[in-house]
Each structure stands twice: as C-alpha cells, then as structure tokens.
Amino acid sequence: MTAVVVKNMSFKAGQTLTIKGVPNADATNFAINVGHEQDIALHMNPRFDAHGDQRTIVCNSYQGGKWCEEVRDAANFPFQAGKEFKILVTFNAKEFQVTLSDGSVVRFPNRPGDSKYRNMKFEGDARILGIEIK
After folding, report:
1. With contact defined as beta carbons under 8 Å apart, do 73 and 105 qualify?
2. How does DSSP assign the chain, residue by residue?
3. 8 membership: H or E segment, kind and range
4. Are the C-beta atoms of residues 120 and 5 closer than 8 Å to each other?
5. How far is 8 from 120, CA to CA, in rounded Å?
6. Which end of the chain is more exposed for a tag (fewer CB within 10 A), N or C?
7. What pLDDT shows up at residue 13?
8. How far is CA 109 from the centre of its chain?
9. Which ranges carry the Galectin domain (predicted)?
10. pLDDT given for residue 133 in this prediction
C-alpha cells in the first residue's frame, strides 16, 4: 500500500480518532503514526511477522530525529489478515489510549505532552477504509 498521509487535521486531547482498515492477506506489518510534521507522538506498528516479532504490537515515538524506547504488547493481537479492524485512539497530556477491535487497550505515554496533533500517516500492509475524528 502506498502511504496515506493526512495533514493539517486537528486531533485534540479528549477527541476520539477512529480508524477502520483491513490487513492484506499476506500482511507482515502496518503502521499508524500520529504527530507533527517531523516528530511522531504515537507510532503503532502491529507486526504479524516482521522485524523479529510475531503477533506483537510495537509502539514508539520519534523525536528530535531519533526513535525512542519501544513498548511491546504480545498479549493482545486481535488483527487477522483479510479481516476488518477498528481502532479507537484517545489521548490526554500523559498518555495515548488505543482500544483494539477485541476491546483490549494499549496504553502508550504521550511523550511530547502536546494537546493537539495535526498529522497522521498510515503505511504498510493494510488498506485504510475510514478515518474519523469526533
């Protein structure tokens, strides 16, 4: 998939970003990035089988030109190749809360601590069906 980039969209603390998509039949991984032009506050990378991980969700942030410390969650992996998923992302000054299709929640620190993000990028082995902010 070619990356889907959304710029100049206002995603504010307290709002919910809903992402619907379908991993490709042969998916190895895909990524959802939320942040600013250069920095990424939330990089969520569900890995079916990529970078030495299997059925693991890896979260990170990219600040000042470098990646920070990864946070891994191998306990919850509701993604299935070819099956639609729905992800709900909310955040506050301290953390992102990502609710997955099975109702499980991944928490990741809001390292920049910002209250608004304007850029989103979706890339990898998934087709994005819809993006909504409420």
Report:
1. no
2. -PPEEE-S--EETT--EEEEEEE-TT--BEEEEEE-SS-EEEEEEEEEEETTEEEEEEEEEEETTEE---EEE-S-----TTS-EEEEEEE-SSEEEEE-TTS-EEEEE-TT--SEE-EEEEEESEEEEEEEE-
3. none
4. yes
5. 9
6. C
7. 97
8. 13
9. 3-134
10. 96
User: What single letter denotes the amino acid at residue 104?
Assistant: S
Tell me the pTM: 0.94
Structure tokens that stand for 101 in this block: 């299709």
Question: Tokens 């890896």, residue?
Answer: 58
In whole angstroms, give the CA distance from residue 32 to residue 26. Answer: 18
Q: What is the CA radius of gyration of the chain?
A: 14
Residue in the structure block whose two tokens are 């306990």: 75
Instruction: Please state, as a whole number, how many other Cβ atoms lie within 10 Å of the Cβ of residue 92.
Output: 12
Which portions of the chain are predicted below pLDDT 70? 1-2
pLDDT at residue number 3: 86
